[in-house]
């Protein structure tokens, strides 16, 4: 019996975001996997997803093959997801956030020992870097990069086992973050949305800041306390010596500002700020515009988060309010973990990891921006994927 296509907001969504998948069976299984993520309670194993969307005994195998082996390109899906999300409200920020995916053993692609600042523990995990659009009070994920430590790209056997494409190489955190910014730039119409990111544990954050400045992209970025900066406006003989941001900010002004979070909550906060420049400009280059570093004044002289921004022309309360968007990415990742199966996938292969992250991101973004249920009687039982899908993996 031929399948009947039932019109609904969910089917409209899947029609748009999966339209570039080349085969009709791939598009239907993408919708089935997405529906499973949205309606399956508890753990989102492939077996439980299949049971939620199909009575067929072959559904488990087909769903597993679709996410792990089927050769479909996730980038056009993320392009359409970005376009769909932008249609649901003005974008206030581009936020860069992290997903820490704990793993057992050493078989999952990119797994390594990583010190997680949020938990204060060293974990055996995969580390994903995500791009999030700030829409209203929400941050929704529209792209990801898997951080691959050098051993994963230098060992031919590991590359083969994880099906890492030849063109993928090890890139540091700051470079991956800039790549996400470049991808959003290419996907979207010109926008003044600033980049908000927590790079407070990245020793090479100055390279990220330079890259944003070269792209004329405004930013509000959490940086290490020891970031080297140059004072602005001091008349001293010779070139001034760089000092740490923490040491220099003690000379800044203290202000009481009213900070507004994305959800509308407001709070009076004591901040200290000062204008700075970054060292390392090329000799003879035109002097760059100054930046502003700022930090919250906490009791007992405890250090607060150190931020740097290019938005020196904006009021400090507005800039500090943008910094609160950092928590939105943490909230989004926690929501994807609890309700959308972010952690419920082995992620052994490079394509499989990106497929799963794309599908989880699509499910989260759809639910958070529409709050609509998935039709319970949606026909989610396409024919099994061809057995020779694995033979075409070179197309991924």
TrEMBL record:
It comes from Streptomyces aurantiacus JA 4570. This is Transposase IS701-like DDE domain-containing protein. Residues 17-238 form the Transposase IS701-like DDE domain. InterPro entries: IS701-like (IPR039365), IS701-like_DDE_dom (IPR038721).
